[in-house]
């Protein structure tokens, strides 16, 4: 969902976080206010999304160097602080768009595989199908 960081959408977006597999937190590199709002959006995601949902920080409009007010280093520093991957893109010029989605999809896939491995029963677990020897009661 693209809410463009607008305050009026903040309350309705919480419903969309539930069940999300991945979330792109996008700011405009030519708009410092959108960058400053990322921490608030991140907290909102942490509060309302499924625990462990994959996230990536995206700086959009990287092709507008002459209008840039948020440096690549600032974006990377924020991503490091939040503990999420970072990428700059340009939707208009189609720079790194595929990479952003493929990167997030790969992270989601890895998380799902890791989680399914953790859900496998251990070798020392109980196997309900095992027949035990011994004097169990018989009926018939």
Automatic annotation (TrEMBL):
<protein>
    <recommendedName>
        <fullName>GTP-binding protein ypt2</fullName>
    </recommendedName>
</protein>
<dbReference type="GO" id="GO:0005886">
    <property type="term" value="C:plasma membrane"/>
</dbReference>
<feature type="region of interest" description="Disordered">
    <location>
        <begin position="118"/>
        <end position="140"/>
    </location>
</feature>
<dbReference type="GO" id="GO:0003924">
    <property type="term" value="F:GTPase activity"/>
</dbReference>
<keyword id="KW-0547">Nucleotide-binding</keyword>
<keyword id="KW-0342">GTP-binding</keyword>
<dbReference type="InterPro" id="IPR005225">
    <property type="entry name" value="Small_GTP-bd"/>
</dbReference>
<dbReference type="InterPro" id="IPR050305">
    <property type="entry name" value="Small_GTPase_Rab"/>
</dbReference>
<dbReference type="InterPro" id="IPR027417">
    <property type="entry name" value="P-loop_NTPase"/>
</dbReference>
<comment type="similarity">
    <text>Belongs to the small GTPase superfamily. Rab family.</text>
</comment>
<dbReference type="InterPro" id="IPR001806">
    <property type="entry name" value="Small_GTPase"/>
</dbReference>
<dbReference type="Pfam" id="PF00071">
    <property type="entry name" value="Ras"/>
</dbReference>
<keyword id="KW-0449">Lipoprotein</keyword>
<dbReference type="GO" id="GO:0005525">
    <property type="term" value="F:GTP binding"/>
</dbReference>
